[in-house]
Structures are given as structure tokens and as C-alpha cells.
Amino acid sequence: MSLSLTFHGAAGTVTGSCFRLSTPAGDVLIDCGMFQGTKTIRELNYRPFPFDPAAIKAVLLTHAHIDHSGLLPKLTRLGFRGRIYATGGTVDLLEYMLPDSGYIQEGEVERLNRRNRQRGRPPVQAIYTQDDAIRSLRRLRRVEYDRWTEILPGLRARFWQAGHILGSASIEIEAVSGTAEPTRILFSGDLGPGGKSFHADADGPERPDWMVLETTYGDRERTDLDEAGRQAVLRAEVSTALAAGGVLLIPVFAVERTQELLYDLDCLFDSGQLPAVDVFLDSPLADAVTGVFRRHLDDLETDGDPFTRANFHHVRGVPDSQRLNSISGGAIVMAASGMCDAGRIRHHLKNRLWRPQDTVLLVGYQAPGTLGRLLQEGTSRVRIHGEEIAVKARVRSIDVYSGHADRTALLDWVAARHGVGHGLFLVHGEDAARASIRQALLGKGWSAERIAQPALDDLVDLAAPRPLAPADRHPRLAPAGLAGSDWHNHYAEALLTLRRTLDAAPDDAARDRILAGVMGALGTGKGTRQ
């Protein structure tokens, strides 16, 4: 087939964005992201790529978030020798984000192998190392917005402002196949909600032949707030948390969300709407990224430097992070990661979730199966680093800092493209979100035959008579494995339930009977103790 598209990620799930465009001049990837969420989904990061990395001629990156860029070091380690094209903002962010990701991989595997040795299990290898990440940076090439860049003979690309984070882009690709007219494919990347403090609204070309559209918030509508309205929401949450006498703990995403929060806190402190309490940024990556934002102040839609204040403290070393445990109240601690699945935030949650005077404020999307999603859904107990923690702290969630367009904004962006020549692929969304966008488009007169919801690893022949029907389907993970919680979540829940049941039993004899029932269900054949 002369032109085909394979969905190796962000198909039936929000993470792992990776699309392979096969052309007469060779294969290119649009994004090469890491899977996040449940352990079942994250296990895909350890498996071989479903293609030969050495055969990939180039990579085009929509933006720097790890679920779009995080497997680039693995790709280069396994033989990729082409160029990685990205905007200047994305390149500057990746110089910190990819080495940090490699450092995290090494640390997590070191801890896992320590447990594996104790359990007599074989060691595992990191997905990639910090050195792998540093080597992958040599492949990066900067591109400008709104300018065509030749990628391969007969293949060129143009990057459009996506309004999501610093450097984010939608990517328009024009491919020539034989003597036919060029085919134009538009990859939305992650689209911003519009009206953000730092960026212009998302843009794009009109009437591409094909469109690949993200649908992260395709089933949600948000209140349209201006900057003052957003700051009012934050002020209310911070004031209530401080009035409770404890610490406000904010799990943050290192890129954009952290900087927006610092910007709004700076405004609220300056205007006297909040007392100038200490704010501790406990994330070396978020600190480094904030430095990148400071270097790009001329590119951001803001006046002055909102990131430097006497009461903004940058926590770098582990001992300094640990000293934050002694703070009893009247402070804000911001720590990564935003979904609470890695990083220093887990140590802070372990130290503070059981304190009723403390508050946890979730400020972004929480993928299914993550600790952040469990807290958002109101779980009463969690397991962190193998220990059971009661959730007594107030858990709050606000959606005014989302970097994603909601349902209306997505539909408006599509409408501004004035349709597509052939068809639309809905990706980067949970099933309900994709279904909602599809239904809305049908209501606006779109034909059902022009809208597809590809599954993981689906291949479509863009030159076939019915190109929206998958030409090949060999998924690495069934759709059921991509949605909701997995057996690891259920296992943790079962352990917590067993612990609560044993604690509530009236005596040891009752506990023996409970355990005997469990062991009997497991087929061990052991009865109660006489």
C-alpha cells in the first residue's frame, strides 16, 4: 500500500501517543509517547516496539509531554538514526524532561530489583537510562511554526500553534504518492482550551484530506472562565485549605500546570487576595522547566517574571524535600507527578493523606487506575510504597487548569477546519469521550462512514476504497486492558478490604474463620484452626 497509517498508541486510551505514517519514501512517526495509567498499560513500555525502530526515517513531535515523547530514548537505543523534528519550545523542554524520565526509570527499576532479589525473582532492565535519554537529544531538530519543512523526499510538514503547552503544535503533513495530488493529513496533537495565560489559541489549516483528532475531554464541558475567574477558583481553594490549619498539597504536572499555578499565586499574592504564605516547589524537573519558561518570557503572553518571589522556594535535594514533612500548616507544597504515580508527591501523600487538617488539590486529568484517579473517586484507603494509608485529608479537584480543549472547544476547532476531504480518526480519549465527539459530529451532519475510532495497533490503508476500515488488526493489548482499573488495582483493593474486615472482626477465632474462607477460595485446602 502506498500510504497507510497505524495507531500504535492513544487508541482506546489517552496515553502512549504514537502514529506511524508509511509512505513511498519511508515510515515516519508522529509522536513516540510513553504509556501511563494502570500497570497493565505501563507494561507496554517494556515490550518491543511493534515496528523496527531502525526502519523509521524521522519522528515529528507535537509536544514535550512524556505520553507523547517519553519513548524516544528507547527508540534511539534500539536503532533509530533519523531526525526528531519539534518546535524550539519543545526542544528546550525535552533537554530536561527526557533525562529526568531516564533517571526515574533507573530509580524505579533499582527499587523493583531490590524487592525481586528478596523474593528470589530475576532482575528486570530499565526501559532506558538517563544516558540513553541524553543520547537521544542529539537527534532533535528545531522547526518554526507556520513554515513547511521537508522531512523526506515527497514528504513535508508544517507545525501550527496548538495552545496546549509551551511549544505544542498540531502537525500538517503533505505526502506525494506517484502522480496523484498530494495527500494532506492533520494531526491535532493535544489542543489547548483557549484563553490561557501563556499561549495563543489553537490554529490549523483548512480542509485537510484526513484528520487525527484528540478527544481527551470529548465528553466534558467546562465553565468558560477568564484569568480573573480562574484565579478566583484557586483563591477559594487555597483560603479554605489554609483556614483548616494544615498544608495544601498540590500534585502538579511539571510542564505548564506548575507555571500557571505559580503565575496565578503571584497575582493573588500581589493583589492581597491571599496572604503571602510559603510555596515550596518540590520537583527538580518542574524547577528546571520553570527556568525554560523564564527563557521564553518573550514568547509567552504575560508581563514580567511571575516565577520569582521571596516566598517561592525551590526544593532540590532529597534532604530538603524530607524536611517539608515537619511543616504543620500555613504553607503550599507543589510536587510532581500530577497523577500521583511517581516522584516526590507519593512521599508527601504518604506523609499527609492521613492528616485531616491537610488538603490535597488535584488540578489536572487523572488517568484510570492512577493513584490520582483513586483519590479523585473518593477512595478511603490507598497503598503507597507497599503501606496502607487512610485517606483523612480533604481531597479537592478543580478543572480550571486543564491544558485540554473540552467538548465544545474540540468541536469548534474541527468546525474551523471546514471539514475534511476523506475522513476523521478519533484518538487520545477514553471510549466515552470518543463516542461523545462522534455523536456530536453526526448531529452536525457528518456521515458515519467518515468517522473512525481506531483500536490499538490498527492499520488503515489511506488509498483503499474504504480506508476507515482497518486493513490489519494485531493489537498488543485487547481494548478491555486499556480501560479502567486492572487486576493490580483490584489486588490492592482486595488487600485493603481484607485488612479492614480482619480489623472489624470481634475476636481471633472470627479472624481465623475469615482467613480460612479466603484460603479455601484460593484452593489451598486449609481449614480453620481448632
Fold and architecture overview:
It comes from Azospirillum humicireducens. Pfam families: Beta-Casp, Lactamase_B, RMMBL. One of its GO terms (molecular function) is hydrolase activity. Residues 15-242 form the Metallo-beta-lactamase domain. Keywords: Hydrolase, Plasmid. The chain is α/β, with parallel strands linked by helices and 530 residues long. It has two domains: 4-220 and 403-481, Ribonuclease Z/Hydroxyacylglutathione hydrolase-like (Metallo-beta-lactamase, Chain A, 4-Layer Sandwich), CATH 3.60.15; 227-397, 3-Layer(aba) Sandwich (Rossmann fold), CATH 3.40.50.10890. The chain contains 16 helices and 23 strands. It has helices spanning 39-42, 66-69, 72-77, 88-119, 130-136, 227-243, 257-270, 284-295, 318-323, 345-352, 371-376, 407-416, 431-443, 479-482, 487-504, 508-521, and strands at residues 4-7, 19-23, 26-30, 56-60, 83-87, 140-143, 148-152, 155-161, 169-175, 183-187, 210-214, 247-251, 278-282, 312-314, 331-335, 359-362, 381-384, 387-390, 394-397, 423-427, 451-452, 458-461, 472-473. The strands form four sheets. Strands 6-5-4-3-2-1-22-23 form an eight-stranded mixed sheet. A seven-stranded mixed sheet has the order 7-8-9-10-11-20-21, covered by helices on one side. α4 (88-119) runs antiparallel to α5. The longest helix is centred in the first third of the chain and has 32 residues, at 88-119. The termini are far apart.
